[in-house]
Amino acid sequence: MNLKRRFQVFVLIALLFSTFGSGQVVSASSPASVPQDPIVINRNLNIWDATFIGFVSSAIHEKWRLELTEAHTFEVKANTAAGDLVPLLILQDANGVEVTRGTGSFITSQSAGTFYVQVQPDSGAGFYFMTLRDVVSTGPSVSTVVAPTSVNVGEVAVVTVNLNNVPPEGYTSAEFTCTFDASLVSVGTPVVTNFFGADPAVAINTPQPGALIVAIAGSNGNKATSSGAVFSFNVTALQAGETSIECAARVSQGNNTLTSLPSTGMNLTVNGSGPTATSTPAPGETPTATSQPGETATPTSQPGETATPTSQPGETATPTSQPGETATPTFTSTPAESATPTASSTPAESPTPTFTFTPESSPTPTSAPDGTLAGQVIAGKQVIVTLFSGNVAVTSVNANPDGTFSLVAPAGNYIVIATASGYLSAQGSANILPGNTTTKPTITLLAGDIDGNNVIDQFDALTIGMSYNTASPAAADLNNDGTINVLDLELLAQNYRDTGPTTWE
Fold first, then answer.
1. Are residues 130 and 151 in the same domain?
2. Rounded to two decimals, what is the model's pTM?
3. Which of 55, 115, 343, 394 lies 20 to 30 Å from 251 when distance is taken between CA atoms?
4. Please, is 233 exposed, middle or buried when counting C-beta atoms within 10 Å of its C-beta (0-12, 13-18, 19+)?
């Protein structure tokens, strides 16, 4: 009985491995049947660090649904359990568009959303063990996701940039520098999410082909406090090839310091080639010759025409009369000069009488003593304080580096205005009393009014983007460190949409 049982087990094992070993279907000799699309079986991936079992062949594929509630960097790995299967894993987004793939495994970073892992044979057929593992990062990072990873010339892929493992204290701003092969793809305008809150300040710069800078700062106290997608942009395929697309990041926590984060990118494959335009003259057309530098084109007269000579410099053209014409002489009459007599008479001198006048003594008038206006205006730039009487500037003074100032003016009522390059102005009234010091309350100017129109808006942010990583215009260097970058945008964002002048009372 034991021998019979062993024989049955042996036969079952033999049948199992013969089925998976060949991967071939035995059929009778008959006309070949029309190939059918494989059946796709839908399953769920819902447990991290678990092992899942499946079976695929040329006729059966399996698609595993994966729900991410937040951004993850994860690994999917499949090992053959039985048969000659070489598993191919394809990650798809919610619309079924391929994101990435790998033979046997892949590691990827994705934002929150719905995804599918499709398992199919790269070759062979059989059972497989599949694991889903969350790749834990030791710290914050930035990841660049390209979907799909393969396009044809003229097609578009979407690039999404994510910040991962954002610390609890959050980020006030971030700067992303994206690189790619500009000969293979062109880049569209980035679209920013609400990662830094509603209505963030954004500056965009393309310093050179193959580079894109996107700077984002949370406005009016908003921060990035969780992981997720920060922005995305389209890339259009131009010609065949493969390019790496990666966005490096520097972040700020509001301490005027930028910290670089580790980054990962992805490759985009462009298939096919675009047409090359060649300029060919149309039939019947003759190319027009142009003179080379240093050559002078010589006009030629047409039959029946007579070339008219022109005088060269230093020559005088002599008019000639035509046959039948008589030259008419021209006479010029010059009047004779006549002397103009000048009569002069010297009157006889007469003595001038002298009078002596002694004025009565009178007191010398004295003006009222001047007064002093003092205070402190805080800004990251040089502050100028000016007194106005109506629309006329009476006097002004440059504040000290700490913003303190003191100016002397005649007693009276004035308008006082404090200004600094790139900042909203402050305005108030000042009553200066003779011989006394009037002190204005301390005030802080609001940074961000780069164009000087007393409004902090997207046009000021645009100036930062256009001048990124330069020192000009000086008004855009809000923190006065010699470089226009995301730290200046961060200062602007703190006062985004504010208007001036600020009331100074």
1. no
2. 0.61
3. 115
4. buried
